[in-house]
Amino acid sequence: MKFTIKKPLILASSSPRRKELLSLIGIPFDVVHSQVDENIALTADRYPEYVMGLAEKKARAVANKYRESIVIGADTIVVFDRKVYPKPATEEEAEQFLKEFSGKTHSVYTGVAIINDREKITFYNKTDVTFRDLDEELIRGYIASGDPMDKAGGYGIQTAGALFVDSITGDYQTVVGLPIAKLTEVLRKEGLIELKDGETILDN
């Protein structure tokens, strides 16, 4: 499959995982880190609004500088027992997170915002992840690798954190950080990308 896009596309994220997922569409894009304060108020249990709000904040910060581009922002949170789990600040906190998830099911929300000509489109996906019963040796070995420290909830499902997972209900890529199938669907529906035969091009 090949897609065409009529305007420059920017991913407002420095996440290598989101960059890799967006590359699956096969369209050219640039990466611009939004560099915004990610602290916004969370109204109790309104997790979809929270992640979509953060995604929009990131996208709009970049869109204000690149007004002729389509800008995509995304944000991911992990929720368990009505508590949001951010990126762990310390190894001790990462260990605490993983012990709390052990043998239980938590939810991962990823919100996406698309800014085009000052118009916004937002959506989110939710995936439930069930962990196996984890032993301390496995948890400490994973933490020693350094992998948990830049990931919401303290683990990466696409890396060695996959060893913790018993099952998922929902979209795997939502847990990675960008629900690419849903994003492609929305971009096509809005006429921002088109499926074409032949080469993928950026029209001038």
From TrEMBL:
Pfam families: Maf
Signal sequence bounds: none
Record localization: Cytoplasm
Keyword flag Cytoplasm: yes
Cofactor(s) required for function per UniProt: a divalent metal cation
Main location: cytoplasm
Source taxon at top rank: Bacteria
Keyword annotations: Cytoplasm, Hydrolase, Nucleotide metabolism
Enzyme class label: hydrolase
EC number(s) from the headed UniProt entry: 3.6.1.9
Reported function: Nucleoside triphosphate pyrophosphatase that hydrolyzes dTTP and UTP. May have a dual role in cell division arrest and in preventing the incorporation of modified nucleotides into cellular nucleic acids.
Family from the record: Belongs to the Maf family. YhdE subfamily.
Full protein name: dTTP/UTP pyrophosphatase
